[in-house]
Automatic annotation (TrEMBL):
Official protein name in the record: FAD-dependent pyridine nucleotide-disulfide oxidoreductase
SUPFAM superfamilies tied to this protein: (Phosphotyrosine protein) phosphatases II (SSF52799)
Ranges for domain Beta-lactamase hydrolase-like protein phosphatase-like: 6-113
Highest classification ranks of the organism: Bacteria, Pseudomonadati, Pseudomonadota, Alphaproteobacteria, Sphingomonadales
GO MF assignments: hydrolase activity
InterPro entries named in the record: BLH_phosphatase-like (IPR005939), Prot-tyrosine_phosphatase-like (IPR029021)
Top-rank taxon: Bacteria
Native species: Altererythrobacter epoxidivorans
Gene3D superfamilies: Protein tyrosine phosphatase superfamily (3.90.190.10)
Length: 148
């Protein structure tokens, strides 16, 4: 297996900094069945275009979904889209962005909206090297709303 920067957040979800076409083989070997691109196109000149990642993923039998997140923050439709992807895909999912942080924070919000405990979500993210404190109040709100 080639070296990758995939960080495991749960048994089914991984986050990563920007991936390239060469990372698709590593994803397939890991059992990834869906790649979620959380970068807006043309965010930086050094990023691999989403269309290239999508084509390589599909050629490898891996699904692809774009849920771009800008530095402006997260929206309910983005959280709902990732939650639906998690619920509808039985395999492993890889989310990526510039550093993996936006993918992790979106995952944390989606899991909280699905009823997972925010503290457990934060602990899992921390083990992978990510900090969920920027979205912790929203996680708590989403989890509380799910319990109502």
């Amino acid at each position: 297996m080639t070296d990758s920067n995939f960080r495991q957040l749960s048994d089914r979800f991984f986050a990563s900094p920007q991936i390239g076409v060469a990372d698709i083989d590593s994803a397939r070997e890991l059992g990834i069945t869906l790649i979620v691109n959380n970068r807006p196109e043309d965010e930086s000149s050094d990023q691999t275009p989403g269309a290239e990642i999508e084509a390589a993923a599909k050629a490898a039998g891996i699904g692809y979904l774009a849920i771009p997140v800008t530095h402006a923050g997260f929206s309910v439709p983005q959280v709902e889209a990732l939650a639906a992807a998690i619920e509808n895909d039985d395999g492993k999912i890889l989310g990526y962005c510039r550093s993996g942080t936006r993918s992790t924070l979106l995952w944390a919000l989606a899991r909280a909206s699905m009823g997972d405990d925010p503290s457990s979500i934060s602990d899992a993210a921390e083990l992978a090297g990510y900090d969920t404190s920027p979205v912790r109040p929203a996680m708590d709100m989403l989890a509380a709303h799910n319990r109502d």
